[in-house]
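Most newcomers find our protein records easier to grasp once they have seen one. Sequence and backbone structure share a record, each on its own labelled line. To make this concrete, we reproduce a full record directly below:
***
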Amino acid sequence: MAPLLKGQKTGWFYDHRESRAKVNQLAPGKRVLDLFSYVGGWGIQAMASGAEEVVCVDASHYALDVARENARINNGESRFTGLHGDAFEACKALVDERERFDIVVCDPPAFIQKKKDIRNGERAYARINNLAMRLLNKGGVLVSASCSMHYQRESLVDMIRANSRELDRTAQIFHVGYQGADHPIHPAIPETDYLKAYFARILAAG
């Protein structure tokens, strides 16, 4: 289900569909955390592809209600948990509870909408990805995504590397996702090259 009238944009973010398909390949038998889940675009598809358990975190009660219904119509309501609240606070609580996941998808809204937001936005990306890594089982997969045009790909890679080092882990990027072909990049309009998703396996150092 996609909330066409009450949702954001189309109610479903189609530009990430190729990266979601990659997660679906990795999902069978896995425990998946979907941060900033909205209506479950990543998490519910992973569940439908065989994930053992999916936890969706979002600040919108309405979005989580739609996600729960999406779980139900895909025969996965018993494998679905919706956590309402701020993703940063939810992650801190999950860390304190020693929860661990095999896949964590971190696909926040644009933290950097304008150039003046770059410094604070980079800090926000670093904080949430650090928390996401803390919630992974060793050898688990972090999907770190950004739709901020002003957040360069190199900066996202640097952030993943810095966080893994801080946590005494090693990150192996094994797949890079881009926007779908129906969102083409115009070579004269840099704003059209905005979407990225890095798939990193997080290993124990050494």
Remarks:
- The mean pLDDT is 94.
- Strands lie at 31-35, 53-58, 80-84, 101-106, 136-146, 169-178, 196-204.
